[in-house]
């Protein structure tokens, strides 16, 4: 495993379920955690990926466990961590708790709750200590304000927010070497293993049978309304995201027809079909591309995405402009625009999910190398205008 | 001081004046007059000469925003207005009787200008009438070979109009660093 020296915080605390990542655990162990969280903790916790988690659980007994621990601390020096191992361990790090295997559920929950309380407490100098807690004992903290322990300046917080947003939608993966199969393997994800795939499947079904569909699973209620062309979700984006970032092939999910006189819940959030699937694809892919994509094949853009109503990832607009002109491969696009590959991958995954982009099948596109980008004489002026439009003083919104 | 201009065009009542006002540094200069012909069914006042707004940039450069009069009888002015322009922002209202016909009319009227620059299309009032869909506008353009950005916009919202301008700039120069 390659070590990264970039230090980051895990995701900011949310008002929804506490997000946990399981590091060094196989699918069976993850399933066991998922089952405990779902059945015994009333979905108070959800499993997610490291970058979008608030607390991580790391299995020291996994292959290279000690190294994983070391690398985790390099990435996240102050983030809450729960170590599990069959061997007993003395921990001197205040951000780390230890639970010995076989894991007693109550001890694990107590450790999670200890970290969770630290996440919401503004300051505490005492060492964290685990007390036995049962899920049923867990009560909301009065006046709970979920902020991190560390106070940061407003400016820094604003910067972090922007960075963390980018991390959520694009990830942090470095560029790959296309000649190295290990590198190439890392850039793929399987949309069908994520909520993205289910939503796409539900949409196909809804359109095909002209029928409203409810996606029933562990997440908040999601209903596709074919009449209004809307998707209604009984949760905020923040609450929905944890369910969208974690692959799970074992979930029992049902796509149920909904009566035509169905009315959306009062508190439901409304999305267009396209914006919803676009967002799910960004959450799931995080700078990766659907498995099976040929990174050397030119990519076409069927038409421009409706950017005014979608999440715009960095460089999405120039990538769209480039592909609208002529198909180009993902790697060539990154190189022509001189940008990290993950931005191209993220945009492609979202555009592909809503069927706006795909691999071209025309022989001419693979035969002829794309031309160099033409440079406008007014590039300097355009750059100033862009800066101005993005940070301008007037706003009618 | 260097001066450049972006042209806003489209039929009567589509929101050109409002769109210019959304991104202009100055209160737009509006030349609305009481409508005396068929346009009075669209809105009580209409632009009979042109609208004007401006964005001042730090490096002593200015972007002038010109809105063409919507009525066809003023189309003699369009060619004069577009001379030296950076590109065209065409606004089409989804709530007019035949938005496709509007789009084709204006694309044709500005054909020469578009040929030497670029165009982006903003469809307004989709909240009042959600059909045709954006997809339908693209289908209308398939034969022309034009692959222009078409976005749903609210002319009152700065972000929407800013994104139209961004798309115009990137269409001209995708390598632009922003």
TrEMBL record, chain A:
Protein name, per record: Uncharacterized protein
From TrEMBL, chain B:
GO molecular function: GTP binding; hydrolase activity
Keyword terms: GTP-binding, Hydrolase, Nucleotide-binding
Keyword Nucleotide-binding: yes
CDD domains assigned to the protein according to its UniProt record, in alphabetical order: Ras_like_GTPase (cd00882)
The family this protein is said to belong to: Belongs to the GPN-loop GTPase family.
Name of this protein: GTP-binding protein
Annotated organism of origin: Candidatus Thiodiazotropha endolucinida
């Amino acid at each position: 495993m390659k070590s990264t020296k970039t230090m980051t915080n895990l995701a900011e605390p949310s008002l929804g379920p506490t997000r946990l990542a399981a590091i060094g655990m196989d699918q069976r162990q993850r399933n066991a955690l998922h089952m405990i969280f779902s059945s015994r903790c009333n979905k108070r916790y959800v499993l997610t990926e490291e970058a979008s988690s608030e607390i991580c659980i790391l299995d020291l007994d996994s292959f290279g466990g000690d190294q994983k621990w070391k690398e985790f601390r390099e990435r996240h020096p102050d983030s809450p961590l729960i170590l599990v191992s069959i061997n007993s361990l003395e921990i001197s790090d205040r951000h780390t708790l230890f639970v010995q295997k076989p894991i007693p559920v109550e001890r694990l929950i107590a450790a999670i709750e200890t970290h969770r309380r630290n996440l919401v407490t503004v300051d505490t100098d005492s060492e964290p200590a685990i007390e036995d807690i049962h899920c049923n004992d867990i009560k909301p903290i009065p006046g709970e304000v979920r902020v991190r322990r560390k106070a940061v300046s407003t400016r820094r917080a604003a910067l972090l927010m922007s960075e963390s947003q980018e991390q959520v939608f694009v990830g942090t993966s470095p560029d790959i070497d296309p000649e190295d199969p290990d590198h190439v393997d890392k850039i793929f994800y399987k949309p069908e293993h994520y909520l993205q795939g289910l939503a796409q499947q539900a949409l196909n079904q809804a359109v095909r049978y002209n029928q409203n569909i409810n996606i029933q699973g562990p997440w908040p209620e999601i209903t596709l309304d074919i009449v209004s062309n809307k998707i209604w979700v009984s949760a905020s984006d923040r609450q929905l995201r944890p369910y969208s970032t974690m692959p799970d092939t074992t979930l029992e999910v049902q796509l149920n027809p909904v009566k035509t006189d169905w009315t959306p819940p009062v508190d439901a959030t409304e999305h267009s079909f396209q914006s919803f699937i676009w967002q799910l694809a960004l959450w799931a892919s995080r700078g990766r591309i659907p498995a099976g994509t040929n990174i050397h094949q030119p990519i076409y853009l069927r038409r421009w995405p409706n950017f005014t109503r979608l999440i715009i990832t960095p460089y999405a607009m120039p990538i769209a402009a480039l592909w609208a002109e002529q198909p180009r491969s993902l790697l060539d696009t990154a190189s022509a625009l001189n940008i990290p590959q993950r931005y191209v991958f993220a945009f492609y995954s979202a555009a592909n999910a809503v069927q706006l982009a795909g691999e071209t099948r025309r022989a001419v596109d693979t035969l002829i190398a794309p031309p160099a980008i033409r440079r406008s004489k007014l590039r300097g002026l355009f750059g100033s205008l862009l800066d101005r439009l993005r940070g301008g003083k007037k706003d009618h919104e | 001081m260097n001066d450049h201009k972006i042209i806003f065009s489209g039929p009567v009542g589509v929101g050109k004046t409002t769109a210019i006002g959304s991104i202009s540094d100055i209160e737009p200069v509006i030349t609305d007059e009481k409508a005396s012909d068929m346009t009075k069914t669209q809105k009580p006042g209409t632009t009979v000469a042109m609208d004007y707004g401006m964005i001042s940039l730090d490096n002593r450069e200015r972007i002038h925003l010109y809105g063409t009069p919507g009525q066809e009888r003023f189309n003699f002015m369009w060619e004069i207005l577009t001379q030296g322009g950076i590109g065209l922002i065409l606004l089409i209202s989804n709530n007019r009787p035949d938005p496709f016909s509007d789009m084709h009319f204006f694309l044709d009227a500005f054909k020469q200008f578009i040929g030497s620059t670029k165009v982006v299309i903003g469809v307004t009032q989709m909240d009042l009438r959600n059909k045709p869909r954006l997809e339908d506008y693209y289908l209308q353009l398939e034969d022309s070979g034009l692959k222009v950005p078409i976005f749903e916009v609210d002319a009152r919202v700065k972000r929407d109009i800013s994104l139209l301008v961004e798309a115009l700039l990137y269409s001209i120069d995708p390598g632009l660093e922003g």
